[in-house]
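My current task is to audit a protein record that another person submitted. Alongside the sequence sits a line of tokens, each denoting a local backbone shape. Please read both lines and tell me whether the tokens look consistent with the sequence. Do not assume that whoever made the record got everything right. Thanks in advance; the entry in question is below.
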Amino acid sequence: MIGEEKINEVRERADIVEVISSYVSLKRAGANYQGLCPFHAEKTPSFNVSPARQIFHCFGCGVGGNVFSFLMRLEGLSFGQAVKAVGARYGIEVEDKPFDSRAQERARRRELLLRVNELAAEFYQNILLQSPEGKRGLEYLQRRGYGMETARHFRLGFAPDRWDALAAYLQGKGYDPEIGRQLGLLRPGKNDGRDRDFFRNRLMFPVVDSSGAVVAFGGRALADETPKYLNSPESPVYHKGRTLYGLGQARSAMSRAGEVIIVEGYFDLLAVAGAGFENVVATCGTALTTEHAVLLQRHGKKVALLFDGDSAGWKATLRAMEILLGTDVATTVITLEDGADPDSFIQEHGAQAFAERFAQARPVLEVFMEKTLREAGLERESRARAAESVAAKISLLASPVKRELYLRELAERVGVSVQALATAGREMSLSPRMTVMTPRQTREDIPLKNQQWLLRLLVLDGNLRQRLEAEGAERYFADPDYLMTAEQILACGADDKALADLLEGAELSENQRRIVREALQGDVASLAEDRERIFQDCCQATETQRLKKRSRELTREIVEAEKNGDIAAVAALSQEKLKIDRQLKTRSAAIAEKKIM
């Protein structure tokens, strides 16, 4: 048995056009490719390959499927052999795992959920393209400058203005309404308990993963209804932090260009793709995450950020920058006029003007440095804070060579030594290349960040779980929810399978699941390089914070005991405080010596 995660990795990396081209001569035909079917004799090409959906289909003999089923049929391979063959082609090692009935059941359930999403996508698109109910959606698209070709390529649809249109359709197909509820497509009625459609009277954008499967939907209101955009909730097949809108359609273009453009909105993506840049994805209404960054690294080594030209767009750029600086992806930023978004810019100025802006894209850290120093002005205190802020971002860079080059440039700009800036950058981070404090953060926020990093390490490393279990979680987890979560994770010991069952089962509360998700959204890339050092830094920082907190508590208790005239308590508390203060002094000296070295 091959793990589902490994199958998905191979599926995401594989390009079905590239694989099939090694067996069949293909020629582009619109958005797809055509050739003579290898499964039956024919003289006129009826064999189609869709790079957007990563599937093939022959209109002559009816055979179709994905990259695995193509090899299974053509080479006579089993499914496992096909996965291994495709994996080997893309440098992915695929190992067998022991048979797991629970994993098989999860895979069966996933396929069922994806099938219902596929049916929903077909239903919405048929309404848009073939039903009078979809006329409003088509007219809206046309007013925005998009036609039938765009609708078909991105599988756009329309949700009718009826309470139970999709519910009735799925029921007619024989599917349990509970599946629709799990996917967020249906909601039980408040009064009669009958299922109601979640999306109504909206232009529909199916969210397709890199394997071509529909995992979620975004719905755009056509008038002034609120909210303007309505997105599928998270489900067993959809996680916002791991999904990028348009990835299924952009895969081939990303591979060819070795670069991807990231935008925020659905229409921004349609505009950029329509301008000839098909290597574009959107973040589905959420901030860029580490999981997004890992996904992007599989498809290219360059990322161009293209967000709105307002303050919100700049904040989104900064959040994405902090995630991407810790990877080996070269990140640039495409700038637009103040207030402009990609869709409005392209509609007003045209594709050529956008191509010029794309050609002028600059490294995002360079743009951040210039903007931060310019806004700081010449006042010494403001300029010092700005230099520290830039140095903190530089410390996130994965490459030591890049860090050195940027620090030298910053040093020349502000007239401060490289060493001083490097020290400032490290001190503003939890540890080198870890979470950077933003202007809104205070030092009081750091203990929770330590707990997040420790929890992340415990999830990823069974040996560290065993080590921390011996010392006790309460020593390093002050927050009650984090402590309870950590204790359940530590109970798994070095058994990764037990941990996987815990994270997938019902033992964790919804709040604990949220804590684990947030912990795993950080910079996982840096953990691979120096996991032991980061573990020690987190433990030491958390222990130091605990000791400082106890020292403050003891000060208050001593004052209270003195007021009450309890001499014995004063002596005992003072002795404990003296001991803790000595420990803190020793720790401080060790940290200072470490910096000097």
